[in-house]
């Protein structure tokens, strides 16, 4: 992995080749203006310190544009490096003039074949809250925050009548909503697998599905669990960027986050139970196979004994010279086999 800390040269460490594109919304209670561009100079003239400015950046390939944005808003160089580090852990960090949130977004991976298992892909989103601005940095061109943009244009959620931290709470609700949707999908898939396991279907196929769901679960847990304490610390902090009038909205986000965390815990327990059930089912299948093999072997034990006796080549074995000896031997072995089988059926061992 490329490391920005080793040099002053900025390097985007992700794999996305999305060209950098900027979209700026400036608004107040009475009006809203939008502008777009491929570099910061094309939108910087539209910034207005008398309004709230929401700058969306899609694609982090153009590191110089990202640098210009951060320099304009006086964002620390270390934070700039974190923005470009696609593998940065989830974190919430308070600074004197802004708050940085590095989060992950999830979506189902594209399948090359219909029979491919469901997998999750993630991309990093960095949100920076300032006194009169919100910056969002996304690795790819996405419509993830389009609902927020529409609500802002129509002022559905009264976003334009509130400060920038309220916009942050709306964006966080969208992110947590993404978590809720993905975690619920995993939970539903685990329940379906549990029902399938109880029917004792193809164990090998189910084992592969369990591993796939486990990978998805671990990916989400690694990204979401750090928020548990960091978000509480943000709520309890005394940052001047978090206005008291908007605290209720951040508490609502916390309620949604706690629901996601509880669902993740439920998924963990369900996944653990599924693994135990899968192992138990495999043991049952193996026991059933061994039982069938044992029954077959038991049926042939007396037959093998008779064949062994008649194959000892002693001279004084009158039945060997008997005219009906061969037919008698077959009849005796068939009768013994049927009797042993009937005994097993009566005892309900088979």
From TrEMBL:
<keyword id="KW-1133">Transmembrane helix</keyword>
<keyword id="KW-0406">Ion transport</keyword>
<dbReference type="InterPro" id="IPR045863">
    <property type="entry name" value="CorA_TM1_TM2"/>
</dbReference>
<dbReference type="GO" id="GO:0000287">
    <property type="term" value="F:magnesium ion binding"/>
</dbReference>
<keyword id="KW-0813">Transport</keyword>
<dbReference type="InterPro" id="IPR002523">
    <property type="entry name" value="MgTranspt_CorA/ZnTranspt_ZntB"/>
</dbReference>
<keyword id="KW-0460">Magnesium</keyword>
<dbReference type="GO" id="GO:0050897">
    <property type="term" value="F:cobalt ion binding"/>
</dbReference>
<dbReference type="InterPro" id="IPR004488">
    <property type="entry name" value="Mg/Co-transport_prot_CorA"/>
</dbReference>
<dbReference type="GO" id="GO:0005886">
    <property type="term" value="C:plasma membrane"/>
</dbReference>
<keyword id="KW-0472">Membrane</keyword>
<comment type="function">
    <text>Mediates influx of magnesium ions. Alternates between open and closed states. Activated by low cytoplasmic Mg(2+) levels. Inactive when cytoplasmic Mg(2+) levels are high.</text>
</comment>
<dbReference type="GO" id="GO:0015095">
    <property type="term" value="F:magnesium ion transmembrane transporter activity"/>
</dbReference>
<dbReference type="InterPro" id="IPR045861">
    <property type="entry name" value="CorA_cytoplasmic_dom"/>
</dbReference>
<dbReference type="Pfam" id="PF01544">
    <property type="entry name" value="CorA"/>
</dbReference>
<dbReference type="GO" id="GO:0015087">
    <property type="term" value="F:cobalt ion transmembrane transporter activity"/>
</dbReference>
<feature type="transmembrane region" description="Helical">
    <location>
        <begin position="293"/>
        <end position="311"/>
    </location>
</feature>
<feature type="transmembrane region" description="Helical">
    <location>
        <begin position="323"/>
        <end position="344"/>
    </location>
</feature>
<keyword id="KW-1003">Cell membrane</keyword>
<comment type="similarity">
    <text>Belongs to the CorA metal ion transporter (MIT) (TC 1.A.35) family.</text>
</comment>
<protein>
    <recommendedName>
        <fullName>Magnesium transport protein CorA</fullName>
    </recommendedName>
</protein>
<keyword id="KW-0812">Transmembrane</keyword>
């Amino acid at each position: 992995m490329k490391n920005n800390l080793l040099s002053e040269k900025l390097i985007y460490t992700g794999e996305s080749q999305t060209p950098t594109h900027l979209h700026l919304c400036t608004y107040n209670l009475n009006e809203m203006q939008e502008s777009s561009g491929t570099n910061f100079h094309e939108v910087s003239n539209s910034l207005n310190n008398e309004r709230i400015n929401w700058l969306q950046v899609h694609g982090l390939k153009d590191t110089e544009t990202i640098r210009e944005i951060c320099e304009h808003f006086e964002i620390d160089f270390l934070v700039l490096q974190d923005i470009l580090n696609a593998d940065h852990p989830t974190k919430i960090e308070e600074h004197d003039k802004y708050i940085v949130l590095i989060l992950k977004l999830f979506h189902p991976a594209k399948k090359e074949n219909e029979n491919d298992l469901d997998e999750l892909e993630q991309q990093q989103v960095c949100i920076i809250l300032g006194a009169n601005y919100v910056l969002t940095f996304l690795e790819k061109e996405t419509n993830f925050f389009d609902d927020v943009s529409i609500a802002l244009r129509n002022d559905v959620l009264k976003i334009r009548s509130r400060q920038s931290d309220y916009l942050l709470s709306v964006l966080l609700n969208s992110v947590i909503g993404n978590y809720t949707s993905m975690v619920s999908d995993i939970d539903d898939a685990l329940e379906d697998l549990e029902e399938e396991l109880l029917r004792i279907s193809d164990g090998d196929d189910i084992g592969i599905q369990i591993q796939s769901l486990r990978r998805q679960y671990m990916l989400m847990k690694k990204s979401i669990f750090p928020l548990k304490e960091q978000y509480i610390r943000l709520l309890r902090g005394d940052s001047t960027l978090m206005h008291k009038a908007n605290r209720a909205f951040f508490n609502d986000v916390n309620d949604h986050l706690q629901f996601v965390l509880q669902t993740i815990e439920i998924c963990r327990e369900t996944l653990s139970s599924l693994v135990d059930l899968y192992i138990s089912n495999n043991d049952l299948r193996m026991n059933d196979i061994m039982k069938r093999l044992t029954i077959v072997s038991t049926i042939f034990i007396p037959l093998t004994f008779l064949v062994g006796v008649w194959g000892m080549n002693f001279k004084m074995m009158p039945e060997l010279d008997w005219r009906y000896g061969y037919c008698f031997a077959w009849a005796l072995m068939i009768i013994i086999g049927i009797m042993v089988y009937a005994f097993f059926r009566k005892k309900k061992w088979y």
